[in-house]
Amino acid sequence: MNELLKIDNLNISFQSSGSDLKTLKDFSINLKERESLGIVGESGSGKTLSMLALTRLLPKQARITSGSIIFRNKILNNLLNKNFYKEISGNKISMIFQEPMTALNPVHTIGKQLLDTYLYHNDVSFEKGVLRALEILDAVQLSKNKQRMEQYPHQLSGGQRQRVMIALALINNPDLLIADEPTTALDVTVQKEIIQLISKLRETIGMALIFISHDLGVVSQISDNIIVMKDGEIVEKGSTSKVLNKPEHIYTQKLLNCLHKLENDQKKEKLKNSPIISARDISKVYKLPAKIFKKPEIIHAVKNVSFDVKTGETLAIVGESGSGKSTVAKIINGLIVKDNGEVKIKGQDVEDISLSRRAKLIQPVFQDPYSTLNPIHTIGYIISRPLVINDNLSNHNIKTKVIEILELVGLSEEYYNRFPNQLSGGQRQRVAIARAIILKPQILICDEPTSALDVTIQSQILDLLNDLKQKLKITIILISHDISVVKYFSDRIIVMYNGQIVETGNSEDIINNPKETYTKKLMSSVFSLKQKNQILRDNFT
Amino acid sequence: MLRFVAGRLIVVLSVGITLSIVTFFLLNYVIDPAQAIAGEEALFEEIEQIREQYGFDRSITVRYFEWVSGIFKGDLGVSYYWNKPVISLLIDRAPETITLALMSVSVTILIAIPLGILAALNPNSLIDRLALGIAVTAQAVPNFWLGLIMILIFALAIPIFPVSGDKTLFHFVLPSIVLGASSVPAVMRLMRTGLLDVINADFIRTARSSGFYGWRLIFNHALRNALLPVVSVLAVQLGNKFGGSVITESVFAINGLGRLALESILGADIPTVQILVFVFAIIFLFFNLMADILNAYLDPRLRL
Amino acid sequence: MIFKIFLKRLFPRSFDNDIYSLPPKDLIIRKSSNHAGFKFGLTLLLIIFLFAIFGPIILDVSPYEQDLTKRLLPPVWKDGGSWEYIFGTDGNGRDYFARILYGTRISLTIGFGAACVGMIIGVTLGVCAGYFGGWVDQIVSYLLTCQLALPGLLLAMTIVFLIGPSITVVIFVIGATHWAFFLVVSRSATQRIKNLDYVTAANAIGASKFQIITRDIIPNTVSQIIVIFTLEVGIAILNEASLSFLGVGIQPPTPSWGLLIAEGKEAIFFQPWLIILPGIALFILVVSINMMGDGLRDITDPNSKVSDK
To answer: Which of A83, C113, C165, C295 has the smallest set of CB atoms within 10 Å of its CB?
Structure first.
């Protein structure tokens, strides 16, 4: 096959504080026609930057210092902006982005945005443009395409918007589509549909694809070849099967280990303990404030949810965003007042327990490592605060205890006087865990504790939680949308959808033999490496 | 739409009622109106006589309801100072102030919007710094002083515009520049940051990745988004100009509502002052309502 | 409401969805030492402060002493001026330099005083409205609409004139009509902060509402409040000058700059320096405060990039 794109020794640096910071080092790739290439890396690895250089969307501070980009035997570096935008961008090379919610202009209709792009690059009549727009909306499987043309982006769901984005990128039949984390912001069940759609359209249009993601599982589904990046450099390059099965670089191996570890089942003991928490028929309704021209909306966040948590077990509540799982967690913790039902912790209604006793019984750990710590307080203050409020201890004792806990979560004494913004995401999450366990609570509610972290950090935090669970004999309620994390960690699973419990059962049963349709859909949308390996192996034999 | 407007009208009405109570009590209870009319050195008997003559000896609630029912009948009271019905004073003086308000908002638009756009398109350039300089200066110059300096310059050095009075539209040029200049910094900054925000927005990245660039990108894809808040703030500014006319009108000797207000205050003319405070408040609320409707009309996200 | 959209654009940081707080101390210091406008404004303001405090003591001049034989003397750079009266004398033969110097004290006192009054009212209402929400929020929003709708200058004029003008009255009247910015900014900051995980965590470890408000919420709004504060100081100074200029603020013989301009107005074509000089003094003071405020806004904004030079 002919060569489509060749990038040679591309270097990009950021200008800051007078010195140049090299953020992309000697980036080289070759892409054939119709080939599909996956680029994997953690945040800050330079994976997006390389492609922004190709589409001339680099941020202003970034500068290409050396290297050449050759597209269809044409050197793109030297092309005038005017010619580049008119001939290449949006015409031969298109790009779709992560955030479907903000990537479309909110004040123009879908139709206008599609037509603008088509008529700009093609000298055809308005009527022909409309036909083409309808055709491409049909191709991205967006139903009722005539109505869609008249709609504004805010009237569509996230998945629908991403389909419109894809339509916008493909309306001029490009030779190359660059997809930058196109599914990361979407729900898992929608993710799979979008990936399948991109895959299918690649076949029909016959274009090449560069797929950027932090998720090796997702990338392996769609790519012929994979590039692994770390700190601005390519560390591994090869066919998908080779990268997955015989990784050469230590970083790739680590990445794969983290994923495999999550996929391997742990041996779990069956517990027959008494329930520590019992929730009966809990409901919560949110009223969205009335906006101009809109009636106040009522959302049933949680509807008649009942379940028990046994002492010492790890219970996972699984569901997509908006399923009400976080609300359930906060209700159990007594942090949100429920509308109906009752929650009993050790036989006592959670709303009747005194603040201090509740604090010593049950503690939360949250998702976002950046908002979980108050930025104006020191780490020492943050961790000691529960003790200061609830226990009457001398300053010296408090400090000793805080340092003990710091060491328990894998941080050292030197962090005591630091501020949160001097810590990395993983370290902040450790501090948040330290704060939660310093009162020795019996229950820990972890609300997506790892989903904002990079893969390698994720597995460290999960290990820490596992370790603490053994050492401190804590009951853990884990809220997650990530099936692999849940599988790795939990004894029992509750599946939630639209504020209700869909299915409950032991982990293995739910994961291997889901009964309800929704659970099946959820489980099948997990991109596991095994499946891909299976497919590849099938192809070889 | 109707529901929204009706809801807003109720708010406007209730705020109007609250304000009428507040101003009435401030001007009739906190301050002794009889004393205010009689002056500082008046004898006790004189004050008592005035009190009876104007009916200030009756209870304040009775007088309040009298006042309000008068407003509904179109009787805004009689000015002590001018010895005229307040309504005829308002009708006499309103055209000058309306002219001044409209012209000064035009001045703001003509200066602030182009400057804001240019500054946003060339951040940290010479024009951006110039725009920032103009904003900082205009924000720090006291309005009345700017007026006096204008008079000084245009009376002595370049006598092209008249510096005092309100006979022709030419008389309004200098006052409008002075009054308009006070809104330039806010509107200019709003335009600049708004456009900068839009330029950095994801959907502009989408448009760029679709091949749009240069002026076409700005005009077709960015400007409308950035103008949305500016348009509605301009509507609010128009409402503000009425209250802001006090200083400009007295500096340039324009016989408008603002000057009327100042003269009434200095003359302790409580009936006129309380109507003017109320009228300015209603004008402000009206333009705010207009701005809200306009904003919702222009922004599809706020439409149903 | 439109007012909020307006503020949102002028103070984007108070409303954005990123987690905000003061950037680390060393970064703040580095940013402020690199911000030319901020340094300029701060230096100028410090000089003005020193002048206002020590000037009258060191220079030993009186703003009230009249000498009718020396009326309307021109300043030193004009024909007939002398070093004895650098800025000349006014219509009553008083030293104009001394009057402007004393005027600095009046402006600074009223500017900072009124901004403090406004801040106390606005932040208290804003934090309560943001934290408690519900009917508290509705009442506060209603109060806000009332405050915005009232023609502030006109009302202030009326009240000051009728109650009887004094510095204290002017401070409270200006403060009481200028708390909207404080309210809107602290309210929306509180609304955002109270939903952040660290506040929920504080709740979970048993902290009381009072503790959460004083330890977690207010400290995180400080940087935004300071920016509004500097802005309001400038506005209050200009407001006082306007009131005094119209004759309904500080009364003679107290040397307020607005009053000096009003007194000089009669002789505008003959002794123009009588209005130009106090006007320039006002301008310099307000510019220095505004430049410092703009600088603070950039410095405390984690997204802003202050270029190194």
So the answer is: A83
